[in-house]
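Our collaborator T.R. sent over the components below with a one-line note: 'Predict the complex.' Nothing else. No constraints on interfaces, no templates requested, no preferences about which chain binds where. So this is a plain run: every listed entity goes in together, and whatever single assembly comes back becomes the starting point for the next discussion.
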Amino acid sequence: MLAAERKLKIIDYVRKHSVASVAQLSQDFGVHEATIRRDLSEIEKEGRLRRTHGGVVLVERVSSEPSFTVRVNERVEEKTSIAERAIEMINEGDSIILDSGTTTFQIARLLSAKSNITVVTNDIKIAAELQNNKDIKVIVTGGVLSPESYMLNGLFTDHALKKLHVTKAFIVIPAIHPKLGLTHFDDQFVSAKRSMIESAEQTIVVTDHTKLGGVSLHNVAPVAQIDVLITGKEASETQVKQFQEAGVTVYTV
Amino acid sequence: MLAAERKLKIIDYVRKHSVASVAQLSQDFGVHEATIRRDLSEIEKEGRLRRTHGGVVLVERVSSEPSFTVRVNERVEEKTSIAERAIEMINEGDSIILDSGTTTFQIARLLSAKSNITVVTNDIKIAAELQNNKDIKVIVTGGVLSPESYMLNGLFTDHALKKLHVTKAFIVIPAIHPKLGLTHFDDQFVSAKRSMIESAEQTIVVTDHTKLGGVSLHNVAPVAQIDVLITGKEASETQVKQFQEAGVTVYTV
DNA sequence: TCAATTTTCTTTCAGCAGCAAGCAATGGTT
DNA sequence: AACCATTGCTTGCTGCTGAAAGAAAATTGA
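Returned assembly:
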């Protein structure tokens, strides 16, 4: 059996059983434990499984991104500043998309100051936050609820987003690069974000400075589709310049 | 068993049973109590459970956060009893619809005891309640959020419901009459409820006894489409009999 | 309320299983 | 023949576990 083949079978096995031990895999495949360990190290480097003492377990989505409760408490100040700047861009009568995320959740919080706004969101926590505001109409996209966040995703989400047209979309992305554009570590979230960008006249990316220059596996959109980038003042001048040269209006707050 | 595997199983166990003792976990997994304590400390550090003297409990639900404040409900006891009876009807592997409402919210609360369930709902509060349960897949219908409740409604709701097929639908209705069937005072909610009934193999109406015999303006569905009615024991025998004669299985709890 | 008692918790230590790293052997490719 | 990738083996090291002991918390009975 080829090494690559064995690695694929290991991944398959763990997908099915959630866990596997080095000893057992070694026996099943009839190779030395050291070989299995080497395989596991490589698989882990590819981010497909997580190694533990004695074996390997499934990657939880949490490990690629911490849970909402954790994230909401990270870099709160930067997120709030970004949200405040974002709010300034929203005018009376606008219909906007708020992508699921903690920064956009801050935008939702501040939105109560505005009136006559329609908000489209794929985040039930954002929806709940806006729920008791009579001056804001909230449209929830629908879809499958992520167990580790409040995001909706899937066919219904895409369908809803494709049927709508808004003036501004506020997008969250875990990696944005001046040349390689917006990328995401999980392909299942790509479709929704693309639809959001397509449904909006103007696309605004809100993200803290740690995401700048990052690249992930799955391509979401080129930089050319981004109109505005709002990020923290911690962003380096070099980074900001690179985005500006790519035609993006950058606000650092 | 791997240490990591054991930790995952502990979390699973507590998710289902809400609590667990060190002694019992130690016995179940056949490891020393000190080992369990070490596991619990680590799990707590990850923020997934909360330690107590002698064991471990679930972390407080996110739904207790301000944006999901629980409204004070009337007839909570009756609703809880109805929910308990409803839960008994749900089997492993079922996919169910939970209509928006406080009685169905109680069903959602009790659902955590079940596993391998798919829940379709048009209520973001119900969705939030089920969100951190890994054994339950939650599909939100999408739609416009009602300012006075957590209900989603409108074209997206109808579209999603029409695309789905479930084994059981738990429907809430403000008026149900043995001859005139299900009626609603607001026509905008009629379409969703009809779709729910059509999408389900079995339709179960859950409602407190004050709604029995009531009639409103807009017709939703005839009694013939109802399979089961779960209501409070306060319902009069005459009323119950009338529904039974119309072919409905009635449970008074 | 307080002190005695019991239970549970934390810390420490030793033993063992699992681990990374280096090296040699194998087999295939240039 | 030289080279490279892959595997198996060995070695010293790391991390997990159970046992024990002292600390802390809960319970009991006055």
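Summary for T.R.: The two ends of chain A are 56 Å apart (CA to CA).
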